[in-house]
Amino acid sequence: MTEKIFARASERTKLSPGENVWVNVDVLMTHDVCGPGVIGVFKKEFGDDAKVWDREKVVIIPDHYIFTSDERANRNVDIIRDFSNEQNIKYFYDITDRSNFKANPDYKGVCHIALAQEGHCRPGEILVGTDSHTCTAGAFGQFATGIGNTDAGFVLGTGKILLKVPPTIRFVLDGEMPDYLLAKDLILQIIGEISVSGATYKAMEFVGTTIESLSMEERMTLCNMAIEAGGKNGIVPADATTFKYLEGKTTMSYEPVYSDAQAGYVAEYRIDVTKLEPLVAKPNSPDNRGLARECKDVKLDRVYIGSCTGGKTEDFLAAARVLLASGDKVKVPTYIVPATQKVWMDLYTLPVPGSGGKTCSQIFEQAGCNSPNSPSCGACMGGPLDTYARMNEPQASLLVNY
Amino acid sequence: MAATASLPNPTTFSSSSLTRRHHRQPSPSTTTFTPTKQPSSFKPLISLSPTLIRHASVIPYVTNPTSSSSSPSSSPPATSFHGHCYVVRDNIDTDQIIPAEYLTLVPSKPDEYKKLGSYALIGLPESYTTRFIEPGQYSTKYPIIIAGDNFGCGSSREHAPVALGAAGVVAVVAESYARIFFRNSVATGEIYPLESEVRVCDECRTGDVVTIELGESRLVNHTTGKEYKLKPIGDAGPVIEAGGIFAYARKAGMIPA
Hints:
heterodimer, A: alpha/beta, Aconitase, domain 3, five-stranded parallel beta sheet, four-stranded parallel beta sheet, 30% helix, 16% strand, globular, B: alpha/beta, Aconitase, domain 4, seven-stranded mixed beta barrel
């Protein structure tokens, strides 16, 4: 289906892997870390007075280094704000009051989750972003991949990008998902199988009865880590689950694309999920796969639950259910960083199934976790030195990201 | 094992179709993109040689390509790079190349570009006892990096090839690259991401004096006396030589000059 999406976006009838084509971009996303660089390239190459190719197709989302006193980080948010104002960018999710995220009605949080929640991910489209985890959006049956500042600057001016059509590896996941597994376990299984370069330059297509049973957030977790296998993109065919999720989030029309029955794949992997167990990725690589039960004696210094991979509403619901089932208090500092404002609100409002009406926040509090912090990428990739939950010395942390 | 690989309909791709020819010469009928205003010209990467000349014990040099100002469809440039090499292993990720805390530096600002260079490869583990850049310096003694598999994996941060280029790296010779890093190297024109055919990183040591003959796709290690064939840079070459995709696109007439 990736080949067909490329074909439509390049106005060609048919394409084969390996062909280099210019495609029309439907959405370009950037954030506070790369945005200023992209803007610099854009202005340098197209001129100070140049206008972006389409003010409605650019989505600018501050999310990385937000809640910090680092002057350059703060300046970078100012730069993307100035540009958004100058260009009248329709979708700029601004934050001006860093001391209280709730005082910023437009602010969303983690870009990949915000893109989905705001209806910017649509089947059949081409979405590029200045972040490696842009592949998350492939969960919606579209082509989504990460690009650098220069490529993004080019897209800003022209609305087009030169891409090579990737060959596809097909992952067929069948079987009823056991209740002790999450999509994260599925993708860790796959990455452990093919290694961090196993999908380099390739599309990873996820199909099968298990995939069809996954929610959108679980599909996002799956596609999110395609890059951890080196993948160009991850993709899940759109279906009723997708269409239902998009209802009310977007008014734009879209046309899903599906793989032909006789489509060619460069490799195929079949997985029976009923045979899998919870997994972890041990230091220092996402492909250093280990069984969770074999790591139970590893001493931890802290736990961090957050990021685009593990900080969505369903991730916290799953965490809450585990804590509820154990009934114990956490033994190490446990940091909760919801991905977006909406996720934050869900922590305080949604009842956790089987808890008798308790919310995630109540369960986390009873278990002794730290209170949920301001939504952003947080300490996932470190960030400025004063970032909440940042590890500033060697420690063992269980991270619910990569 | 829960996962098994089966190939019911394997589509085989010959190695040539998988070479990284990102920016092929466009045909004359390619659409011209017309943004509203045109900016200044691009300096070719090759002229950025001051950092290579400074080193005392070996005099590095970069010969100017004969085809630097000719059309993009010309033969590969007759360019050589010479100097000490710095050897790294497999899976060098972008966080090792330029740790996240330095990403507040914006590459398009000249003084911050220079600062990025000073942090190149500062994230390498302590097992790398020779530092890539001496503390307090802005550029490296090693214009050529030799690496294993999957160089540049991890994040899409363009700061990675930029930091290397800013530090004075002209080329990396790796067994293979992560996709976004390779793409960013070409798009910015900062470094030549060359590929070797064998594990050159196992046969070279940091400090070896090497020469890369770009036009002949050849790496020579003068210290060991061995020579290695490199995969041709192909269509990415003219793009890097022009100084990146914008300069190339202007030369090729894809965007107005």
